[in-house]
Amino acid sequence: MALTTNQQLEKIVPSKIREMDEIFRSVEGCIMMTMGEPDFGMPENVKEAAIAAIQSDQSHYSHSMGTGEAREAVAAFMKKRHGLDFNPETEIIMTTGATEAIYSALFGILNPGEKVIVPSPYFPLYKQATTTAYGETIEVDTSETGFLMTPELLHQTMAENENVKAIVLNFPSNPTGVTYTKEELTALAEAIKQYEMFVISDEIYSELTYGVEHVSMAKLLPEQTILINGASKSFAMTGWRVGFIAAKKQWIPPIFKVHQTVVTTGVTVSYAAAAEAFRNSEADIERMREAYEVRRNICLAALQDAGFSVPEPKGAFYVFARIPKKFGMDDLTFCQMLAKEARVGMIPGSIFGPGGEGYVRMSFALATDLVTEAMRRVSMFVGK
Predict the structure, then answer these.
(1) Is cis: bond before 121, omega within 30 of 0?
(2) Per-residue pLDDT for 328 more than 90?
(3) Which pTM value belongs to this model?
(4) Any idea what DSSP says for residue 35?
């Protein structure tokens, strides 16, 4: 009998974002707008906290839910910034980045064959995690509704599908940068409330908004929401792999079982650094947010002048631009030509699902002078 592996994994493909990033990095002099990677270093006080943790031999296991210090810091931060009340002992799990949080949450709630609504365009991980957990993804195209899930789309999707267990929401959004106003989110929450379903609310970019206040779905729909967040984007700590799950205590035990089985416990030093970030680095959030907003404005002005159709990103650090019709080519071909001829790397929108076809995603999380030069090259490329 021949040996076999998990056949479910045949449905999973490696990250196309990273694949494209690697291809374009081989182009000499290419300005990389491919990855959601802050160009800032993490705050100095956070570095000092990490060093102090190492010097005091914090190199041993923490509790599987994370250190008490980190969970308490997260709870205080979410209370202060978003008016959320989570018990750090029973309602918060520290995770190995938001990625693990998403996996643990979906594995914790899904049974084989249950369905998850994923508004498109979407970060590919949501579909991969759902499939790995033996669930089914319902992709809902939001390209005609400003890249927002609306109550009308939700009701239509629920009418057409049975066995729906959850909806994944990501706002501010990767890849589009769009987010919900309080009124839009409230209307969507009222619609979701009519159904027995979870909301996996990925709010990792919650602190990076422009001209709009972030409102958490956990504030509007606390009994149904499993909140995902972390330190990676807000504090430029992607490599420290600190995320967290926050939810009502009745939903924590099954998710914790998945987390503990996969991770056992996270990195103690990372938790010490993150605790300091959540306690004392709000000024650094604002400093970085202001820089991102300047870069966003540079991208918007240049792309609109070049003939791209661009929904204004109200958060995160991405612009999602529709390729001018005059090119008459798909988004993959456009990105390949742009990298080769203009030496600017972007991600094809179709990687993010059917709602992204014909678009390109660019990250402006790189130095302002590089953003300016990239936009100059794009403008010249389009002008040709």
Answers:
(1) yes
(2) no
(3) 0.96
(4) S
